[in-house]
Design a protein that fits this description.
The structure holds 2 protein chains of 2 kinds. By secondary structure, chain A is of the alpha/beta class. Chain A has a 5-stranded mixed β-barrel. Chain A is elongated and about 75 Å long. Chain A starts with a helix and ends with a strand. By secondary structure, chain B is mainly α. Chain B has one domain. The termini of chain B are far apart. Classes of the chains: A alpha/beta, B mainly alpha. Chains A and B meet through α1, α2 and α3 of A and α1, α4, α8, α9 and α11 of B.
């Protein structure tokens, strides 16, 4: 191996070990949930281990060959360009403290289009009570699971939910939307889910602030839809939860 | 602390790269195994001699040699050198990046086990590759358009290889393959993150819900992005909420046939006219098939 090949080999080893270090840092700092769904954690961890092993082998194993023997070997400029581009996500992942997606990620979508509605059908008789939840509804995931089970029959159920406060011209007085994103694999496939909240007073929380809402499930008619509504008795500002995203099931 | 939009861009960009890594690793190790252990002589011996069976066999040969679009052309050149007809090698180049178990499984994972998407992707790719292969066999039945090959393909023989050196060899090839593809994965992730962050989603949705416009929009994007077949389904999945299913399928099909990254290599390998035929026929067929899927989806 000549000096140039050795330099390329060291560079490759550094980049592979860099990816392994990035994955380790995100797990240790508890930041992986800001990028990926927890379901992929085992696969990501194995990836980190494999990349670390590849880096060590590249460093001490004499370097990797050129894959395509019949093509001219990449120039120093090509190696430099590749390395610079690969360093960008590594540096961003290691140096930047990630924050959860906010209202800006809606990309101009109207809140009215995102609000969750009950399945079309007749409203339940006033005396009808929905099924009791299997456990107290203490967060948005519990609430969405309960809504799937009970539908509009769940009206009147006491609930607590957390999300981002969202204001929009399509909402009425004392109304706001409670926004959460659900992700399947990573934040690139995030889907917004919004619940209508009717506040207890005139003082609305600031936009993009994480809030906890306590109240009861209700229904509001709008443009032919029966919107899932939380008639709030209490709204308080809270810090961003450790895992700001809902799972793929929602 | 980064401004909100910049933070959003950075988080989406890094997340796509992180999400792609495991599947890129699976692909490069599979490719390294083929490189190390599959002999081109053996492959050529298995292939039938008549045109239609050859094209059909070539279209599904990716199940035996699961190489992504990054490794398919060099392998096809080696197969051609061992007596595989040019039209069969062309069919293999078009089909193998998608018609192989690794890519089909990664597509299923990306789309949460939606086997309809997997089946449609498989069907669309097979249709295009077989059609182009048959057209090539009719136009150039005895063409030796593939340029003369270079040195003999490495691998395919275990003689004198110890277990340790074998593992080290596979790791070395996998590392080399990884650095051949990772540039384009990162570039594609950056492009996608910028698009998602800066292009208003309402604009994308407006274009993306049109049965023909959505297909016409995403096909050139796929060609420009040139994303590896092991990872493109995850990028396509990010478009799934704003684009029609036909556009998503077109993105995943044409991106593996006509892309910037392999374009020059394809021209050098097939020659200018056959490469142009591949490009034009593939674009037209994928567009028609994707629009038909959209119309069928609307009718259901």
């Amino acid at each position: 191996m000549n000096a140039r090949q050795r330099r390329v080999s060291w560079l490759r080893a550094a980049l592979l070990l860099g990816f392994a270090a990035l994955i380790a840092k995100l797990f240790i700092a508890g930041e992986m949930v800001k990028y990926m769904a927890p379901a992929l954690d085992p696969l990501t961890a194995v990836t980190g281990v494999v990349m670390a092993a590849m880096g060590v082998l590249e460093l001490f194993g004499g370097g990797s060959p050129h894959v395509h023997d019949d093509e001219p070997e990449a120039s120093g400029m090509e190696h430099a360009l590749t390395s610079i581009l690969i360093v960008v996500p590594l540096a961003l992942g290691i140096l930047v403290t990630p924050r959860a997606l906010g209202a800006g990620a809606l990309g101009g979508q109207s809140v009215a289009d995102l609000l969750l509605a009950y399945a079309p059908g007749a409203a339940p008789a006033p005396a009808t009570r929905g099924p009791a939840p299997s456990r107290p509804i203490a967060d948005t995931a519990d609430l969405l699971a309960y809504l799937e089970q009970a539908g509009i029959a769940g009206v009147g159920q006491a609930v607590r939910a957390t999300g981002l406060a969202l204001h929009d011209g399509s909402l009425g007085d004392r109304e706001l939307a409670l926004l959460r994103y659900s992700i399947t694999h990573c934040v690139a496939d995030a889907r917004p889910i919004a619940l209508l909240v009717v506040g207890p007073g005139d003082r609305a929380p600031s936009a993009d602030q994480w809030i906890e809402v306590e109240g009861v499930l209700a229904v509001r008619e709008r443009e032919g839809s029966q919107l899932v509504t939380i008639a709030a008795s209490r709204i308080v500002a809270v810090p961003e939860p450790p895992n700001p995203y809902l799972g793929a099931q929602f | 602390m980064l401004p909100a939009r910049l933070n959003e861009l950075a988080v989406i960009f890094v997340s796509i790269v992180l999400q792609s890594l495991p599947f890129v690793l699976v692909g490069v190790f599979a490719s390294a195994l083929v490189q190390q252990h599959l002999s081109a002589d053996l492959v050529a011996r298995w292939l039938p001699r008549r045109r239609l069976p050859v094209v059909l066999a070539s279209s599904v040969f990716g199940f035996v040699a699961p190489v992504c679009d990054c490794g398919v052309i060099p392998l096809a050149r080696r197969l051609r050198a061992k007596g595989v007809p040019a039209y069969a090698a062309t069919t293999f180049i078009l089909a193998a990046p998608v018609v192989n178990p690794i890519v089909l499984i990664s597509t299923a994972l990306a789309f949460q086990g939606n086997w309809t998407i997997v089946g449609l992707r498989l069907g669309m790719t097979l249709t295009v590759s077989i059609a182009v292969g048959l057209a090539a066999s009719a136009l150039w039945p005895s063409a030796s358009s593939l340029v003369p090959v270079g040195p003999p393909i490495h691998g395919g023989s275990d003689d004198g290889v110890t277990a340790l050196s074998g593992i080290r060899g596979i790791a070395s090839h996998a590392t080399a393959e990884f650095f051949d593809v990772i540039f384009y994965i990162v570039l594609g992730a950056l492009f996608t993150a910028v698009t998602q962050t800066l292009v208003p989603r309402t604009d994308l949705t407006r274009v993306g819900s049109h049965p023909m416009l959505s297909v016409a929009t995403l096909m050139p994007v796929a060609t420009l992005l040139s994303i590896c077949s092991e990872a493109d389904a995850f990028v396509a999945r990010a478009f799934a909420s704003t684009f029609t299913v036909g556009a998503i399928l077109a993105f995943m099909t044409i991106g593996q046939i006509v892309d910037l990254r392999n374009g020059f290599l394809l021209v050098r390998t097939l020659g200018a006219r056959p490469a142009a035929l591949v490009g034009i026929v593939s674009y037209a067929l994928v567009f028609i098939l994707a629009v038909l899927v959209n119309l069928a989806a609307r009718a259901l």
